[in-house]
């Protein structure tokens, strides 16, 4: 049975997560991880998913050690590597582990959707300020109407950030926000995390 693009994406992210930040993987390694015996027919799909991931800024396509544009005409062998921002992932999650595809971070075993990385920094900063202001409004004494209005502002900010509502990725993968990692396709990755 042919894997879905979401499964290929997870396989790429998982292999990259197992390597050092500057290491790369070959698309054939991904295909073999998906089907050890019949991996060659998967190569076009793996390359297509990798190109889409590169377009979304989730990885870099490299050739001869140089990063290539996802729009470049790719000929010959390529390698897949983390982007510099993905290599530094975790800085915006308070040290909580981030899934290999960068979509969620994990707190007490539960997945929490991260903000859309495609948001311009100024817009993201403004939305985070709105979110923090709304959360502060929930503290202390306030009427039920004020509390409800503040909750609605929290929800609006989280939706605008991409942490709630429609997902910000475009590969058709389902949303696992607020689910226990062990009950999702991230279970193997989560089980391999060091304890503590």
Structural account:
- The chain is α+β, with helices and mostly antiparallel strands.
- Among the domains are: about 5-90 and about 185-190, Arc Repressor Mutant, subunit A (Orthogonal Bundle); about 120-160.
- The protein has helices spanning about 5-15, 25-35, 45-55, 85, 120-135, 145-160, 185-190, and strands at about 25, 60-65, 65-70, 80, 105, 110-115.
- Strand 2 (about 60-65) and strand 3 (about 65-70) form a beta hairpin.
- The longest helix has 18 residues, at about 145-160.
- InterPro entries: DUF3253, WH-like_DNA-bd_sf, WH_DNA-bd_sf.
Summarize the helices and strands and which ones pair or pack.
Elements: H1 5-17, E1 24-25, H2 27-34, H3 43-55, E2 60-63, E3 66-68, E4 79-81, H4 84-87, E5 104-107, E6 110-113, H5 121-137, H6 144-161, H7 187-191
Antiparallel strand pairs: 1-4, 2-3, 2-4, 5-6
Helix pairs in contact: 1-2, 1-3, 2-3, 5-6
Distance between the termini: 38 Å
Which stretches are poorly predicted, pLDDT < 50 over at least 5 residues? 86-91
In total, the number of strands is: 6
CATH architecture of one domain: Orthogonal Bundle
Write the element-wise H/E pattern from the N-terminal end onward. HEHHEEEHEEHHH
Q: Spatial order of the strands in the main sheet?
A: 1-4-2-3
Give me the CATH superfamily of one domain: Winged helix-like DNA-binding domain superfamily/Winged helix DNA-binding domain
Radius of gyration: 19 Å
Global structural class: alpha+beta
Strand count, sense and barrel status of the largest sheet are: 4 strands, antiparallel
Q: Please tally the helical runs, counting DSSP H or I stretches of 4 or more residues.
A: 7
Mean pLDDT: 86
CATH topology annotation of one domain: Arc Repressor Mutant, subunit A
Helix content bin:
25-40%
Q: Per DSSP, what share of the residues sits in E-state strands of 2 or more residues?
A: 5-15%
What is the CATH first-level class name of one domain?
Mainly Alpha
The oligomeric state is single chain
Shape: elongated
